What we know:
Elements: E1 3-7, E2 10-12, E3 18-25, E4 34-39, E5 46-51, E6 59-60, E7 68-73, E8 78-83, E9 92-98, E10 108-112
Amino acid sequence: QVQLVESGGGLVQPGGSLRLSCAASGFTFSNSAMSWYRKAAEKERELVATIFTTATTPIYADSVKGRFTISRDNAKNTVYLQMNSLKPEDTAVYYCKARRFSAWGQGTQVTVSS
């Protein structure tokens, strides 16, 4: 079955950086577009970024554009989210998802605070 395991979250000061990873299994990773979502307390879940299977340019939420970069390594079945210039409003649980499937991972907590 589809399994997604996120890692790399933590506590970081405003302006800092983190790199999230999501290890995928149970499906043909290279054939699937992958997305990162986040869920902050008392807010709706937000689509952060999506990377496709082709050379199509990834898409980003306006709130993270220019600060976050999504990438993938098909040899490792892993999708990444490089987060720079972090702000307190980026605090959330971050999840990855394969667009073709409904499964979610356990998420990884990102807290941006001084």
